Amino acid sequence: MSLDFGPAVALSCRECGARYDLGPSFACLECFGPLEAAYEFGTVTREEIAAGPANIWRYKKLLPVPGDVEQKRNMNPGWTKLVKAEGLGKSLGLKSLYVKDDSGNPTHSFKDRVVAIAVEAARNFGFHTLSCSSTGNLAGAVTAAAARAGLEACVFIPADLEQAKIAMARVFGGKLIGIDGTYDEVNRFCSELIGDPIGEKWGFVNVNLRPYYAEGSKTLAYEIAEQLGWRLPDQIVIPIASGSQLTKIDKGFKELIALGLVDDKPYKVYGAQATGCSPVSVAYKAGHEVVQPVKPDTIAKSLAIGNPADGPYVLDIARRTGGAVEDVSDPEIVSAIRLLAETEGIFAETAGGVTVGVLRKLVEAGKLDPELDTVVLNTGDGLKTLDAVSSVAAPSAVIKPSLDAFRKVI
Amino acid sequence: MSVSVRIPTILRTYTGGSSDVSGEGATLRDVLQKLDADYPGIGARILDESGKIRRFVNVYVGEEDVRFAEGLDTATPEGVQISIIPAVAGG
After folding, report:
1. Domain A81-108+214-389 -> CATH class
2. Tally of domains within chain B
3. In angstroms, what CA-CA distances link A328 with A99, A300, A332, A344?
């Protein structure tokens, strides 16, 4: 089998640095640490990137994908809008605020970015089935990408997910299995399935394809920098579920600096969690280096990972960059969803309520500088979590079709 | 107590390819000690130099993540299944 992962040349352990050949493996044989793609980048210029397609493949020379990736059957996600958020900024007292709105991806969440990379890895390894454990958004991204790529799909979710996410995961065909348990239990199930003969030739995007999959989140960093005119933001607020996205955005910023695509400057990374599932925030505030798992209870189901695999790295990054990790309650999440909607016309899912809520909390606490360039991420679409706002987003009035009736309610 | 231990793919080189092996001990600590005696070297893959469970390994006794229970002191009743699982990314 000849593998083509473009600039990626090996897998290396993030924990102990041990190196391995590129393959469908995800944990270090020495220490169980997570493996990630290691590269030998050639020359990459701003002009070359700008001449590329309006999707993540404009950065293909920075990703573990083959050189002809644009020719493949893929969802081609990314290049979502970076909205200059003057309304939200004014409301919060921030001078220069941007919302990176990733609800604009093909299946309406940032997960299309990571899955697009995982699909190319699955093709490389000759897998026939694409799978994942998911809090919802990932399941939809995987089944859609499998449909486009002509792969089988079988995805696993906690059975109690939002109806919209269930529909989104099933409509593209493939098998959708609801598991009676939490996301962490679904994850455990998938880890055991992977060592079983049933899971032979299956690519679990966030398990055995994780070293490739996770790299997709770097494209958020690349796009934000390019959309800001090839410069890094001063401050960025990122949601934390497993912590993978935050970790990879930091990696992306560092690569841009190392490649000379942006000027080196300090940036602060802030992590955002829901109080009902805040193991990383709790560890951050307590000064711990490891994360004590929790049992999630929050409306922000896409972030409800009680045992976040990359939690220790999030702690390292928040501390290294001078950022912080903060959490907000469910009512604060709903209030933040409405604030973003009313000031920017962006309808975020609960995860977006978490980041905007945390942004607000950090500004109010004086932990974030209102004078600096700030980016806040919205990683999913409010239409997938309608239940969260249904009690506050009802008709203002229901009336007879007469002007008299309208005058009484206006 | 006699227990069964599920071995993840990456540790099966120690167990001659077996995904399930039998173990012995009243607590997780005892079971892991016995496991290392039976399959020399496997213990150091699960525990770090200071004897703590490595931060990217999850160990379950029955259905419970031992970090929610008593860690290495978690009791391992007769017949229980212990699972050793690498941490994975989310979604």
Report:
1. alpha beta
2. 1
3. 19, 10, 6, 21
Tokens for A257, please give them: 């600096």
Tokens of A73: 């059957």
Nearest to B77 by CA among B1, B14, B17: B1
Gap from B21 CA to chain A (nearest CA, Å): 14
Per-residue pLDDT of chain A (410 residues; tens, 9 = 90+): 589 999 999 999 998 999 999 999 999 988 888 999 999 999 999 999 999 999 999 999 999 999 999 999 999 999 999 999 999 999 999 999 999 999 999 999 999 999 999 999 999 999 999 999 998 999 999 999 999 999 999 999 999 888 999 999 999 999 999 999 988 889 888 888 887 899 899 999 998 999 999 999 999 999 999 999 999 999 999 999 999 999 999 999 999 999 999 999 999 999 999 999 999 999 999 999 888 889 999 999 999 999 898 999 999 999 999 999 999 999 999 999 999 999 999 999 999 999 999 999 999 999 999 999 999 999 999 999 999 998 888 899 999 999 999 999 98
B59 found inside a domain: yes
Query: What six digits make up the tokens of A169?
Result: 């995961």
Contact yes or no for B23/B35 (Cβ under 8 A): yes
Q: SS3 of A18, please?
A: coil
B15 vs A: CB within 8 A: no
Listed by start position, the domains of chain A span 81-108+214-389
Give the residues across from A270 on adjacent strands.
A237, A324
On whether any CB of chain A is under 8 Å from the CB of B54, the answer is yes
Residues 6+ apart with CB under 8 A from A148: A73, A74, A75
Predicted ipTM > 0.90: no
Looking at the domain assignment, is residue B67 inside a domain?
yes
Instruction: Say if B72 falls within a structural domain.
Output: yes
Per the CB < 8 A criterion, the answer to whether A240 and A303 are in contact is yes
Q: Tell me whether A112 touches chain B (CB under 8 Å).
A: no
CB contact under 8 A, B88 and A187: yes
The minimal CB distance from B57 to the residues A32, A194, A241 is found for: A32
* CB neighbour list of residue A255: distance below 8 Å, 6 or more residues apart: A41, A62, A218, A221
B91 found inside a domain: no
CATH number reported for the structural domain that contains residue B61 in this entry: 3.10.20.30
Shortest CA gap A200–chain B (Å): 12
